[in-house]
Structures are given as structure tokens and as C-alpha cells.
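Section handout 9: paired folding examples.
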Amino acid sequence: MTEPRFEPGARIRVKADFPETRGPCHIRTPHYLRGREGAVERPLGAFPNPEDLAFARPAARIPLYHVRFDQPSLWNEGQAGDTVLVELYEHWLEPAA
């Protein structure tokens, strides 16, 4: 099993990448999170990459995380303390500056 790169509490940024503009792909990372910062809640284990499985390609096991984001910063609505919890694969995450 692939060891997770990020520990609980780590500040991360979702990569601002749009592979769908380069050709057919299957993306599990919501557009509204790309380029946004959040915090790792916990690693969930390593799973075959669904972006490869969708095209019947060999799929490496990649760590998956629960990542928490402040809701008001995503949609300009909600109250302080409102959050959104999302499952994201490690290859979409980078350390926040």
C-alpha cells in the first residue's frame, strides 16, 4: 500500500489543473475546488486510480483523503465554521504555501 504524503491537519491546495481540456478523461475532482486551499482531515487508505480505471488502464493505488474546506470561501455563503468535506486523491493535492 502507498503511504500517504499528508498528515491530518496538513494545509493543502487542490491543483489548478484542467486535464479535460487536453482530451478525453475521467476526473473525480470537482471544478469548484481546483486552486482552493483546505486541510487534510484524515487519510482513508490507498485505492486504484479511478481516472485510469475508467479507461481500463492499469491503475496505481493512490492515497485518498478526506479534505475539509471552509464553505464561505468556496461559495461566498454560509457562516463562519461551516465546512465542506470532500474525498480527494493525493495526485490532485499539493502543500499550501
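Moving on to protein 2 of 2.
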Amino acid sequence: MTYGESDIIDTIERLARTDVAALTQEQLDGVDQFHVGGPEAVARLLPGLRLGPGARVLDVGSGLGGPARQVARATGCEVVGVDITAAYVEAARRLTAGAGLTEQVRFLHTPVAGLPLRGFDAAYTMHVQMNVQDKHTFYADIARRLRPGARLAVYEVCRNGDVHPPLPLPWSLDGGDSFLATGDELCRTIQDAGLAVVEWVDDSAWAAQWFADLGRRLSATPAPLALPALLADGPARMLNFAIAVTDGTLTVQRGTFTAA
């Protein structure tokens, strides 16, 4: 199983030499966002979601909860995160409690298909669908949980042609759970699932520059708290990802859609 990390909070506290409630936002930003671009990528999605206080947002594949907490802080809205990895949900809850955001942000251990809640004002996925084989059903399940006119933002990794990147990768250790589509295929699939495209942008150049900047930060002494330290074979997975985005094997696509 690719997402088999355990003792996540203990590892963070050991590396940071403090408990989670004492972590700075800069430290959290380094470990709690499981996607290229970190908090800057979330900020790129926010304008398209048109959020404000009182809105209710669905985070699908919420991981350690960094994007959900960022969205809540930036907009004042309520965020519900769902993820199928129990250890990630537990870690997200503890990090959220440490940040004092439990009244705004909550996490459920369930696939989106098992979520009974409906009528969300917005939703987003960030580096999630690469592990989803039936992407049409996945996005249709999200669409059914949105109110009419609600927005979906996606920030997803796609292949560029028929060449596949070397393994391991952040979302797959052996390739058995990696289901990469091209950017055009993914955009059409989301539309076929009942969502109308508003914007579809190739953010690969921006992502490649972020990776270059990350490399410089990680080479500093002392190195900052960073996500690769939490993952099994983390440095190799992130390096392969960075190379594949930089050489064009992979693209990073950013999109906004509306529910019918």
C-alpha cells in the first residue's frame, strides 16, 4: 500500500523537536500539504472557488489536512475533508486541534462515495485522481454532493503522452496503484461526470520552478521540516516527481468547474 505511513504525529514532533501545538505555520506548511506547490498551490485555487464565511467546502483526499486548514483560515468557511487512509485522517485531526480549528474543519475516514452529506458550496481535489482508476465515477460522486452552481477546483498530475515516469513516486511505490490520464482526458472525464469547465490551465512551468526552489530550501543547513521525511523512500519519490515535471513527462493541471 502506497499510503502506509504510521506514527505521523510522533515523527513530526521528533523532527521538529516540539509538540504539534507549538509548530509554527512555516513548519506546518513544510509537511502537511501532500502536493507540489504547497500552500502557494492552494492559494492559486482559491479565487476560482469564490468562497466566504458561511460556505461549506468538501476536500476530497484531504491527507494531513493542510489545504483544508488553509482554506478555512483564508475564507472563514467550514471544510469537511474525506480520506481513505485512516492514519492520515487521525493525523489531520490532531494537527487541526493543535491549530485551534476544530470548529471549522473536520475530517472523516471514508471514500467520497460513502459520504452522506450533500449540498456543498464548493469542492476541490489536489493530487488525488492519480490513484483513482474509475475517474468518471469518482468525479460524478463529487458532483452529486454539490449544490447547483457550486464550484469544483482541481489541481492534478497527468501524463504527457505515453511515457510513464520512473518509480517510486509520491502517489505510487510500484505503479500498481497509479492510473495517470493525460490532461485532455482528465478534463473531458470531469465534464462527462456532470461538471462544466470554467478554466483549464497547464501549471507545469510554475510547478517545475517550485520544485527548483524547494531543492534550494532543502539544501540549507539546517534543513527545514519537509514532507519527504515523513514518507517511506520520500526523497527518491519526490526527486522522481520533480524530474518528471521538469522534463515534461508529467504535467500539473489546474482547473475550475461548475456543477449543473
